Amino acid sequence: MKIHTNITIFGGTGDLTFRKLLPALYTMFNTGKLPENSRIVIIGRRDYDSGSYRALANDWVKKFSRLPYSAETFDAFSGQIDYFRMDLSNPKDYRRLDEYFSKDDIGSHIFYLAVAPRFFSVIADGLKTVEGACQGKVIIEKPFGENLEAAKKLNEELESHFGPEQIYRIDHYLGKEMVRNIQAIRFTNPIFTDIWNSRYIESVQISALEDVGVETRGGYYDASGALKDMVQNHLFQILSIVAMEQPEVFNSTHMHTAQVEVLKSLSPVGQAEIEDTLVLGQYEGYREEPLVSPDSNTETFAGLRLYIDNERWRGTPFYIRTGKKTGTRQMEVSIVFRRSMPEVEPNVLIIKIQPTEGVYLQFNIKRPGDTDDIIPTKMDFCQNCDLVHQLNTPEAYERLLTACINSERSWFSQWDQIEISWNYIEQLKQLFTKKGLKVYPYAPGTHGPKESNEFLARTGHQWME
Ligand code: BG6
């Protein structure tokens, strides 16, 4: 049989596959984004066959699919799913996999490693015996390792097997509609493009608050913390898109270069500045969460004040904050412009990323009536407030899988971005620990410790609420 694209998912019975990948593939099938004659091979240790796995997949797709579920479409879709049972560390099983693949004429391979990073090199090694595998693409998920050293080693191993251009590192924030929109808003509107610099912008805030706690992921999270879990990857990606110079062309190479330049220009922080750079918090009750150490000092909240040392941004602070159990789910980027005169409110542009997707602009008018008072007012555009748009906006994993099939690398993190961000964040954390700074407790349902407000107040600012 001729197969156009063969997508093999290692970790096929894990949460990511059930909640995200299968629903995304189903929708891609439904909307014609999955190339015809594709096949999805699910790799797992558990005792299923293709029939019983498809029945299981049916339940998850029904629950998590973006588009309305249809049994008929699911049947057609699931005809392309095969379950292949194997032990990831058994070389014989890779030979069986090779035999199974060799029965068909496969156009291209994509291997999705939806497994813990300790399996990445085991799988890469195993795939050496599978014909055509090393010409395939491989998708990996963060964490790319437990620390920078481990991540480097993993990266070298993967690159030596697949080659740097074949590795697609998922940062699912890059697949979010409004994250993709930041560059459109910045560069297609001269009212913003021309004043996107420190002369006109007083501060930038990137805020990602979550309602959920660590739930069942205590084991992973406790070794990671908010800085590594959210800041070093998702929020630094956003920071670099907000702050980058306009790429010559909007292709992967130019975008990537522009983003990396921002990360390289982050002002170095020394022992004397760390207190004004980083504030950390932990929600009360975190230490009682399953798989979390009872004396854990891991941060579930992080607030940062960063500066970018280049001509465009010198003097404008970039505030980043993220936290779990904050009583709200809200992710947005706020651009606070300098006031035209001290007594009026600033113009504020807020790019709302989730759950509301939209653009909010605050500006000043004269209070209506017989007065000259100046008051702030707003224009508030919501992109996903109606059902049609909700249904039309692809989910991040749909976009990312489609982008990988089409080799559009700008949708993925590149290794040098990861390395620079990781280095920077590790240095901050080391300075923080060396200085003996405290991880402040905060009550669940609040927006982090009160110290994070005092932290911003020190430079005359406050978090946008
Ligand atoms: C993941 C983090 O990468 O992103 C999680 O590991 C976090 O801790 C999640 O909850 C947030 O993603 P989203 O899409 O819900 O904002």
From TrEMBL:
Residues 184-463 form the Glucose-6-phosphate dehydrogenase C-terminal domain. This is Glucose-6-phosphate 1-dehydrogenase. InterPro entries: G6P_DH, G6P_DH_AS, G6P_DH_C, G6P_DH_NAD-bd, NAD(P)-bd_dom_sf. Its EC number is 1.1.1.49. It catalyses: D-glucose 6-phosphate + NADP(+) = 6-phospho-D-glucono-1,5-lactone + NADPH + H(+). The keyword Membrane does not apply. The gene is zwf. The keyword Oxidoreductase applies. The active site is at H234 (proton acceptor). PANTHER family: GLUCOSE-6-PHOSPHATE 1-DEHYDROGENASE, GLUCOSE-6-PHOSPHATE 1-DEHYDROGENASE G6PD. It comes from Faecalicatena orotica. One of its GO terms (cellular component) is cytosol. NADP(+) binds at R45, D87, L88, K142. Belongs to the glucose-6-phosphate dehydrogenase family. One of its GO terms (biological process) is pentose-phosphate shunt, oxidative branch. Pathway: Carbohydrate degradation; pentose phosphate pathway; D-ribulose 5-phosphate from D-glucose 6-phosphate (oxidative stage): step 1/3. Residues 9-181 form the Glucose-6-phosphate dehydrogenase NAD-binding domain.
